[in-house]
Amino acid sequence: MLHFLLKRLGGALVVLAIVAVLVFLLTRLASGDPVALLLGDQATAADIAAARVQYGLDKPLTTQFVLWIGQVLQGNLGQSLFLQMPVTHALLERAEPTLFLALFAVSIAALIGVPCGMAAAVWRGSWADQIVSTVAMLGASIPSFWFGLILIQIFAVHLGWFPASGYGDPDSTLGQRLQHLLLPALVLGVLNSALIIRFTRASVLDILGEDYVRTARAKGLAEGVVLCKHVLRNALVPIVTVLGLTLALMIGGTVVTETVFNLPGVGNLVVRAVLRRDYPVIQGTLLVIAAIYVFINLAIDLLYTVVDPRIRLESK
């Protein structure tokens, strides 16, 4: 198990190193000068040159990269050019809405995707299978911003059941904040459930054809016991994979949904940073998102050994 863990950690560190290089280069290749945007149209060439020296943007790219990586290795993601605060603090301020939204949404996606995928596999070729497959196809095709606007129009404007945007006042309770997150979580959960439905259906179909499932039925076990104990348990590896990847993608991909619902999350922070060419925020945020994605994958690999002990034996 230790060898398995060290091997995965080594791969994760290599991926993060590659991501750090790509993120740094891509931010510098983008058009626009952050200093010119920061100082405004009235700034003189001398003011811009002085500010570039102040923020270290006058140094060669290799020097800037080495200095940035040195800060990252010390746990410092840099100082935001526009917010005038450490990037770490800016991320922590915006982390709660994004984290709650991602967890809320992936819970909705799992509650929809796993039962529907199992039903479609058990009743393969029936009207239920056709309906579930059609809904999954629609869910994968509908743009999130359009679906979000439709839900706002129905449940916030016409019915008035939920807030149309925002995250509540600073002194709002957790329940009130979750109420603000319900509509955006429904958008992400319903649309991402399509992938979970397809993976669950395919995985369960594979298991239903196994000999031990036919043997369990021949012994007279109840269908519910067969499905839960013998089918779902053995189909969990791909399902756990897609659930983990869905959570990782939601944490890093809530930009559109947070913009539509005006949520003060990490996605909104990234959009504003890109518009302002705030290099430290862009670099730090993308690196953190990549790290979350990589370590969620690592957690999934470790969870495999719990779900399927055969993987633990093979890794020895």
TrEMBL record:
Main location: membrane
Transmembrane stretches, start-end: 99-123, 135-161, 181-199, 236-261, 281-307
ABC transmembrane type-1 domain: residues covered: 95-304
Highest taxon of the lineage: Bacteria
UniProt-listed InterPro entries: BPD_transp_1_N (IPR045621), MetI-like (IPR000515), MetI-like_sf (IPR035906)
Gene3D superfamilies linked: MetI-like (1.10.3720.10)
Keywords for this protein: Cell membrane, Membrane, Transmembrane, Transmembrane helix, Transport
Keyword Thylakoid: no
UniProt topology in membrane: Multi-pass membrane protein
Compartment list: Cell membrane
Pfam families xref list: BPD_transp_1 (PF00528), BPD_transp_1_N (PF19300)
Similarity remark: Belongs to the binding-protein-dependent transport system permease family.
PANTHER family: DIPEPTIDE TRANSPORT SYSTEM PERMEASE PROTEIN DPPB-RELATED, PEPTIDE ABC TRANSPORTER PERMEASE PROTEIN
UniProt name for this protein: Peptide/nickel transport system permease protein
Organism taxonomic ancestry: Bacteria, Pseudomonadati, Pseudomonadota, Betaproteobacteria, Burkholderiales
